[in-house]
Amino acid sequence: MSIINNINKVFDHRIRLGIMSVLMVNEYADFNMLKELLAATDGNLASHTKALEKADYIWVEKQFIGRKPNTRYATTTLGRAEFNKHIEALEKLINNQ
Amino acid sequence: MSIINNINKVFDHRIRLGIMSVLMVNEYADFNMLKELLAATDGNLASHTKALEKADYIWVEKQFIGRKPNTRYATTTLGRAEFNKHIEALEKLINNQ
DNA sequence: TTAAAGTACTTTGAAATTCAAAGTAAAATG
DNA sequence: CATTTTACTTTGAATTTCAAAGTACTTTAA
């Protein structure tokens, strides 16, 4: 078992780590909120949210606000658990291995 | 300025994060030590050390131990500084953004 | 009222990155 | 001395990342 064993590949990328960090403290965040907070381009953000969706770490809710489409994201139970595991592994790696 | 502004792209990958973590607490680590600690394949480890070298975050010393070649790595001053910045940014992101 | 510009995403495919298999060269083993 | 092992490096296929372009409206403005 290596020292990076519990570091989750899905959270390797800073944008995905950022999305999760936002969603750990906000019940929901919509596309534009994430886009602004992370300074990501549309296409880029879409692919990273899709990767987290595919892993079943976040889920997506599409609705209309007034006449405008709105896409918002939230963590799944699995996502929260995996994120916590990842953070713990990160701390262990950095502080004492 | 986004919430992931000081997250360093070079440290996004778990193997590179692992290499740096090892080298922050060990003055030197050789190829085989890193390979074992990180459970990486030869080619994979070589490309990640090369990436850190290219960024000037680590440097490489090639010597012979007895009759065998030995490649060992150590952090640069820049590497240590950038790693510390990264860790600080990670903590900020995870704990309060 | 309809043309132009903006919003909210999604799709696309080129570019960059990741990865392990294969290669190299010398050492150790039998 | 033939074979295997060690210590890496090279290679290029596979995967991932990225932003430009596309889609489907809505809003503004003439």
UniProtKB/TrEMBL annotation, chains A, B:
Q: Which residues form the Winged helix DNA-binding domain?
A: 15-94
Q: Which SUPFAM superfamilies match?
A: Winged helix' DNA-binding domain
Pfam families annotated for this entry?
A: HTH_34
Entries under PANTHER family matching the protein: BSL7504 PROTEIN
Task: Name the chain's protein.
Answer: Transcriptional regulator
